[in-house]
Amino acid sequence: MMKSLIAIIFLLCVCTATYADASAFKCNPAGNQAELNQCALDEYQAADRKLNDTWKKLMAKFKNDKTATAKLKAAQKAWLAFRDAEIEATFACDTGDRRCWGSMEPMLRHGELTSLTQARTARLQKYLQNGLGVSMN
Fold first, then answer.
1. Tally of structural domains, the chain
2. Contact 118, 88 (CB under 8 A)
3. For residue 137, is it within any domain?
C-alpha cells in the first residue's frame, strides 16, 4: 500500500512539473488568459506543497502508531482518487480532448484542485492539532 501511495504522489508531481515546465507564462492577475491560467497553476502548486508538508508532519506525529498510519494512508489514497474523479466529473467533456471548456478551463480546473486540496489540508491539520477521532467542540 505504501508503494502505491508513493507511486501516486510521484506521478502527480511529475505531471504537475511537466505541465509547469511546458508553460512559458508568468502569473499576471491583470494579464491575458494564459497568464491567469498560470496564476491558478501557481496557486494550486502552493496548495499542493502545503498539503504534502502537512502530510509529512502527520506521518511523523503518528509514526509509532501502525494502525493510525495505515488508516491515514488508505484515506489519503482514497481522497486522491476522489479528487481526481471529482475534477473529471466537474469538467466532463464528450470530445475527449479536454477543450470543450475553452481557454479558461486550466484556470477553472486548477481553481477547483486548489479548493479541494485546501480543504483536505485543513482536515489533516485538524488531525495534527487535535489528534484522531471526533472532536465534540
1. 1
2. no
3. no
